[in-house]
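User: Some background: our group keeps a shared notebook of sequences we're curious about, and every so often someone picks one and asks for a predicted structure to add to the entry. Today it's my turn. The entry only has the sequence so far, pasted here. Could you supply the structure so I can complete it?
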Amino acid sequence: MRDNDPERGAGKEDKAQRAVQAIEVGGRLLQALADSQTPLTLRDLSSRSGLPASRAHPYLVSFGKLGLIEQESETGRYALGPAALQLGLTCLHQLDPVRVALPIAQQLAASTGHAVAVAIWGNFGPTIIRMIEAREPLHVSMRAGTVMSILGTATGRAFAAVLPAERIERAMAVALGDPEDRKAPLLKPKAKELREAVAELRDHGVTRAEGKPIPGVNAFSAPALDHEGNPAVVITALGHQDGFSANWNSSAAQAVRDAAAEISGRLGWPAARVRS
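Assistant: Of course. Here's the predicted structure to add to the notebook entry:
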């Protein structure tokens, strides 16, 4: 007997084949506007989306009715509208940096075979929240809850390279149990180390630990930035020196750079704009 149940038949279809093509086509126009820093003419939109102007225009009219785009009355150029802004703000509000970072960290560990740590900036400074074991045993004392040295570890320097000095100073004071009104600066004596961390991240996109503070273990770290350019998490890969090259152009260094850039992109910060 032939099955005439449309719901049952639909369940057998490939999900990709059930996509709404018109939405995908119209989405190319929205993406073109999202990628532009300034409003675009219909000609520009047509060129960037690969759609003839005659085909693009009806989509623009519909998107305008929904508030997803708006057209400047004086120039006729198109820009994203208030509804698009609301969608973006809602998306940012719902984003959980840790939830975004963990699958990427797990993929980094799986693809490289190295141990991978994810850290956030806590009251005492860089704090490990997840440690993913290496394919081969790696005996290190890092685990969830471990607070890392701010300037003595790759993880800490990755944070220090992008955080305001006052936040670093505050965390150092809290870690030492010092009162908030402490007069003697804690960071000033380490200004050279801080400048080196900033330069390291600026020049290489990662910070590095080479055989210290853990003897025989190398590491690369990179911050993932949120939509405001603040370090949401730092991702670190580490391994034995004999199987983990400390070369700035090594596959491990590039994998960490790529992972941090992917997390940053998903949090709303363009990877190319990692600040120095």
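Suggested note for the entry: The first strand starts at residue 69 and ends at 71. Residues 97-112 form the longest helix (16 residues).
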